[in-house]
Amino acid sequence: MFFAFLANFAFIVALGCGKKGPPLPPLVKLPTPPANFTAERRGGVVDLRFDVPSANTDNTRPANIARVDVYAMTSQKSLTEDQIVKQGIRVATVDVKAPKDPDKTIDEEESAADMEAPEGKGLEQGAVGHASETLIGDALVPVEPKIEKSAGLPPAPAPRDGPLLPPRPTPLARAYVAIGVSTRDRKGPPSKRLLVPLVPPPTAPGPPLLTYDEKAIAVKWDAVTPSASIQRPTAQGELASRPLGAPGAPISYNVYDSKTNAKLTAQPLADTTFSDQRIAWGEERCYIVRSLQALGDLKIESEAPAPACKTLIDTFAPKAPANLQSSPVVGAISLIWDANTEPDLAGYIVLRGTSPQRLEPMFNDPIQETIFRDDVQPGIRFTYVVIAVDRAGNRSAPSKPVEDAARE
Q1: May I ask the CATH architecture of the domain 325-405?
Q2: Once rounded to an integer, what is the mean pLDDT over residues 248-258?
Q3: pTM to 2 decimals?
């Protein structure tokens, strides 16, 4: 027993006296995948958006990132993220502000005030990145993906008898992946894969009809009919049949300001009308309406039709002043009325005459007040009305008249 104890003790001592090995290399910090990767297709252009990584895969900050690359590949077969990055082409690069020292980071529970801010001319980490690709040329040509050999894969299933009709072919699609690249040109993990079917976009509506009043611009357009079914209608004497395939996706619409390309609709519209409250007299408003269909999570918009434009001219008179009242005093007649509420109101003009048929304005420049005192000779009966004037010079209808005479 004593000899066994000595042997174990000698073994432990021998381990403790061993030489130290070489130091382990520092952990390579790589950015997390770009989050919220989304795609929208407008005609022949694919619009891509993503959140720029702001942390590393070990949850430290700031991210060791210098840029975000977007890769794409067109195929009729299912593709992995790795295939798209290795066999596809890089279609966009977005520069990102990078850390001065990638190894100088803070843990996720530490305050951002303790973090050294990234620097450079690119986007801020955590900002929304944007890229786009026009679907022309090689982007429309399918590529046969190369299958890397891997041990342990199950053999392909043997062909078997199936239905008379072959399975529907998978539509040609363009696959996209976004990936963060470190300051030493090492790729982080990729984003989720996005598939954009290369099917014809919906038909664009014609230019909209524009009308307006003092409150809003009304934008109206003709509805677009979804693509017709490939199956002809049932002829006379034939049994009714059910069309093959899924029904076409319903059509909705987005409205854009064609000058700024800003989308004015928060959500696609099922109706063919839109009201724009941005009234500004003298300015030109231009609109484009695109039709839209949804294929799964992807929204495909039509090409942009010709814009419709309208210069907003104020031809709308204010309302007639309400509740005009007179109050006679010695040597004068006092008038009072309710204030108008138009935002472009310039003021009021008082008209006076010895009869309702012979009224003349008492002054040319509008007054701001809703009271007026008229010093007149006592005993003469006068008729008064008030009109409102806006800044464009439009005049309201006259108020209801009042008649009165000053006291002696």
Answers
A1: Sandwich (2.60)
A2: 91
A3: 0.69
b/e map 235-262, b = 16+ CB within 10 Å: eeeeeeeeeeeeeebebbbbbbbbeeee
Beta carbons within 8 Å of 114's beta carbon, 6+ residues apart: 106
Q: What's the confidence (pLDDT) of residue 242?
A: 56
Predicted local distance difference test score (pLDDT) of residue 153: 47
- Contact (Cβ atoms closer than 8 angstroms) between residue 76 and residue 172: yes
The pLDDT-based confidence of 25 (bands split at 50, 70, 90) is low
DSSP class of 119: B
Fold of 201-223+250-313: Immunoglobulin-like (2.60.40)
The domain spans of the chain are 35-145+170-197, 201-223+250-313, 325-405
Q: In this predicted structure, which of 1-15, 73-87, 211-225, 364-378 has the lowest mean pLDDT?
A: 1-15
Beta strand pairing call for 332-336 and 262-263: unpaired
Identity (one letter) of the amino acid at 389? V
pLDDT at 169: 55
CA dihedral sign of residues 159, 161, 162, 163: positive
* Burial of residue 368 (number of CB atoms within 10 Å: 0-12, 13-18, 19+): exposed
Range 35-145+170-197: architecture per CATH: Sandwich (2.60)
DSSP per residue, 227-257: PPPSSPPPPTTSPP-PPSSPPPPPPEEEEEE
